[in-house]
Amino acid sequence: MLVLSRKKGQTLVIDGRIEVTVLEVEGETVKIGIAAPREVRIARKELLQSVRETNEEAATAAIDVGRLKDSLRNLKKNLGEL
Amino acid sequence: MKIETNRFGEIEIEERDIYTFPDGIPGFETDKRFTLIGLEDLDGFACLQCVDRGDLSFFIVNPFAFFSDYEFQLPDEDARQLGVEDPVDLAVWTIVNVKDRLETATVNLVAPVVLNVRNRIGRQIILVDPHLGTRHALFPTAQGV
């Protein structure tokens, strides 16, 4: 991992086409501006991690289709029409 | 072709029923072929079954049937990778997380599964929307029932 220091207002250029600018620094929070071509996907890492985790959980759902149907029928009865 | 599944036993599907996910699904990047299985008597629900792994399936729901104000802008790059020619060709599903009780099931609204029914390409899109998360209650009024 490359580690370097930047001051507020300073920019990094990655691969000649992605610019990362430090916009604001306040306490432990750094506001960053990113200018990149549209095809570059940018996401918060914790969101990617969360999507992966929920997918893994969803894939191991133990409930079977029959029970799902029963549950839905009961739920609808209890809640009235959805 | 016949495929063996844990949830549905042996099922018969056609080549045209197979959706290709070029990047897989986060957490399952190497699983690229899925088919959609409708569930009778389960309005708004379906199952996304992996064609190559019988033990891999996801319950999914039509988000618009459960969340009336759900909407999102499909990012350009995702639209390109899905090969979208006409938005009418797109089907949107969201993955449900149901452990053992439907009452506490959650839905991942920030990462919808978008299918292009014309070329049968699918992707799980990750949206940038601070109001959407990975665990929205499917039946908010049933929590604690």
Report what the structure shows.
The complex is a heterodimer of chains A (82) and B (145). Chain A is α+β, with helices and mostly antiparallel strands and 82 residues long. Chain A has 2 helices and 3 strands. Chain A has helices at 45-59, 65-79; strands at 11-14, 18-26, 29-35. In chain A, strands 1-2-3 form a 3-stranded antiparallel β-sheet, with no helix packed on it. In chain A, a hairpin with a 2-residue loop joins strand 2 (18-26) and strand 3 (29-35). The radius of gyration of chain A is 23 Å and the shape is elongated. The N and C termini of chain A lie far apart (51 Å). The longest helix of chain B is centred in the middle third of the chain and has 7 residues, at 76-82. Chain B has 145 residues and is mostly beta strands. Chain B has helices at residues 63-66, 76-82, and strands at residues 2-5, 9-12, 18-20, 33-38, 45-50, 57-61, 90-97, 106-107, 113-116, 121-124, 136-137. In chain B, strands 3, 4, 5, 6, 7, 8, 9, 10 and 11 form a 9-stranded antiparallel β-sheet that branches. Chain B is globular and about 40 Å long. Chains A and B meet through helix 1 and helix 2 of A and strand 6, helix 2 and strand 7 of B.
Task: Please give the structural blueprint.
The complex is a heterodimer of chains A (82) and B (145).
Chain A: E1 11-14, E2 18-26, E3 29-35, H1 45-59, H2 65-79
Chain B: E1 2-5, E2 9-12, E3 18-20, E4 33-38, E5 45-50, E6 57-61, H1 63-66, H2 76-82, E7 90-97, E8 106-107, E9 113-116, E10 121-124, E11 136-137
Antiparallel strand pairs in B: 1-2, 3-4, 4-5, 5-6, 6-7, 7-8, 7-9, 8-11, 9-10
Give the N-terminus to C-terminus distance of chain A in angstroms.
Answer: 51 Å
Q: Which parts of chain B are unreliable, with pLDDT below 50 for 5 consecutive residues or more?
A: none
Bulk shape of chain A = elongated
Question: How do the helices and strands follow one another from N- to C-terminus of chain A?
Answer: EEEHH
In DSSP terms (H or I, runs of 4 or more residues), the helix count of chain B works out at: 2
Q: Element order, helices and strands of chain B?
A: EEEEEEHHEEEEE
Rg of chain A: 23 Å
The radius of gyration over CA of chain B amounts to 15 Å
List the total number of helices of chain A: 2
Q: Into which percentage range does the β-strand content of chain A fall?
A: 15-25%
Outline the low-pLDDT stretches of chain A: none
Secondary structure: helix percent of chain B: under 10%
How many E-type strands of chain A? Answer: 3
- Average pLDDT of chain A, rounded to a whole number, is 90
Assembly annotation: heterodimer
